[in-house]
Amino acid sequence: MADVADAGPRQRPRVEGGREDEILDATVATLAELGYDRLTMDAVATAAKASKATLYRRWSTKAELVVDAISRAKGCPMPEDVDTGSLRGDLISMSCGEGGFTEEMPMSVMAGLMTALHRDEDLKQAFQELFLAPRIAITNGVYRRAVERGEIGPDVDVELLSVTLPAIVVHQAFVLGIEPTEDLILRVIDNVIMPAARGSQVS
């Protein structure tokens, strides 16, 4: 019999019908209006025309609600796990397709979260587990297959390489205020990622 400790967190019951999506949409809208620090469960309940008890039955904390909302928002869906047969093709498909960097999520929403992540431990944990972890798993799969195909040189730091594209996009978006575009993604892939992937291999 499996150890209870290995069963993972208990799955809270979903809100019936389409109400859950309405609550999550209201959360994103309220987050964009108020920012993470000023957002409260009361404010979301009011915006969604739902009871606060309904929210707490599904999400135990504000952090869980907010991260669930942005993870499933129309402008930030989960990117698909793709296998085009090449690292370049996978990166383009993953980054520029549905759920990629070019999807529109209000800048004020993500920028506000980035600031709060540094000082709110609940938000940081929820963001890492619910938002980042599944996306990192997909990215790791892309680079693992590239290694198996021999597209990445043996002397390349794959762990560092795998975070380079998102790091550049985040810097452009949240430090320089430049919206991610397909052109930017392609420039990073072709001028940074692919040359770095070859390492010291002779082309």
Notes on the protein architecture:
InterPro entries: DNA-bd_HTH_TetR-type_CS, Homeodomain-like_sf, HTH-type_TetR-like_transc_reg, HTH_TetR, Tet_transcr_reg_TetR-rel_C_sf, TetR_C. It comes from Kribbella ginsengisoli. This is TetR/AcrR family transcriptional regulator. Keywords: DNA-binding, Transcription, Transcription regulation. With about 200 residues, the chain is mainly α. It has 2 domains: about 15-70, Arc Repressor Mutant, subunit A, CATH 1.10.10.60; about 85-200, Orthogonal Bundle (Tetracycline Repressor, domain 2). The protein is built from 10 helices and no strands. It has helices spanning about 20-35, 40-50, 50-60, 60-70, 85-95, 105-115, 120-150, 160, 165-175, 180-200. Helix 1 (about 20-35) packs across helix 4 (about 60-70) and helix 5 runs antiparallel to helix 10. Residues about 1-10 have low confidence and may be disordered.
